[in-house]
Amino acid sequence: MRRQVLLFLSILLLRAVISQVSYSIPEEMAKGSLVGNVAQDLGLDVKRLRLGNGRVYSGDSSDYVELNAERGVLLVKERIDREALCGDTTPCALHFQIVLENPMEFYSVTVEITDINDNAPTFEKAEIKFMISETAAIGATFDLERAVDLDVGINTLQTYVLKPTVYFVLKLQNQADGTKNVEMVLQKPLDREKNEFISLVLTAVDGGEPQMTGTMQILITVLDANDNAPVFTQPVYKATVSENSAKGTVVTAVSASDADQGLNSKITYSITSTMDEVRQIFEVNEENGEVTLIGRLDYEKKKLFQINVRARDNGGLTDSCKVMVDVVDINDNEPVIKIMSKSTVISENANPNTVVTMINIQDPDAGKNGNVQCFLHEDIPFVLKLTTNNFYSLVTEGELDRERASEYNITVTCSDEG
Predict the structure, then answer these.
(1) Are 363 and 3 in contact (CB under 8 A)?
(2) This model's pTM is above 0.85
(3) What's the structural domain count of the chain?
(4) Contact residues for 19 (Cβ-Cβ < 8 A; gap 6+)
(5) What is the purpose of this protein (predicted)?
């Protein structure tokens, strides 16, 4: 895709200074809180910030941080919710620039947003029900709902506790994605005549300070014979789907079998222990196991989905599998050109390679779809130079003569490789 922008330039001296500074602050700081003394850290005079029209340039991202040019400091402009900003991505950081005019100076700033323990583990359901045969063998496992904790690091979900443990004990297995698979294992024979109903409590515990927990009740009804649990044909299913796929597209199908006879062998499929966004985008047919697209995909927002699917027979026995869905990028975004400098004048005796303005190019597509090249059409005494990733400088290349040309209309064209 191609995008053009027109610059109107009159024939002041500009220079570019590129430097950077980094800060780290916790999320949820109050508006007006100090992020850092950027003037001191960059070696700038506060007067220079003020007279140079110092400002924060953040592209398309929200302005969470503002520059107080009178004090030379960065302040929190809007409350920052790390989970809303970055989800489970770590590290979570804001990237922006401080731009000064006359002469032009360009500084990159990174502000890492650290997590605080502001979210308790939560279960999607307050309770879950099982119907288990009294002939279930010792060691039989039953897949449980996993909790979700939006925090990261030590503040996120760490472990589970199951009480009481007369009939069942907890089995936790670490998964490749960092989560834990949660199962309860039968350790004592069930007797329907003694205990037809069993009630357990599963507690999810995070590692924050103070520690936060979430609970779910497990209600078990003890039934007559059902010896075999369903078994998926494979533990992990992999699929790919284009980000522009229509609703109703079948992504893949899972399949489980049960060796029991009659009603006990009937299997139903469901999505379990999954973030809400997954349920808004995918659904599983409870009868045939087809995983279908019901929402809109956007590669630039999320590239990989993990869908946890459970197979349950009529006797309450279960098995679980994972469906890993890779989203394939399409070239659905044009390059966005942003002019960072407000200056439109330059002295005719400016030296070669004098920076006229800075241009920021943004294309969220991946691979060649997001590789952008910019160029000038006209035969003019200016040239575009790639300064840093996604930033171009428009600089002088030849001599300027106001008597021959007092102004230039410059068209910058940027194209991706999609």
Answers:
(1) no
(2) no
(3) 3
(4) 42, 107, 108
(5) Potential calcium-dependent cell-adhesion protein. May be involved in the establishment and maintenance of specific neuronal connections in the brain.
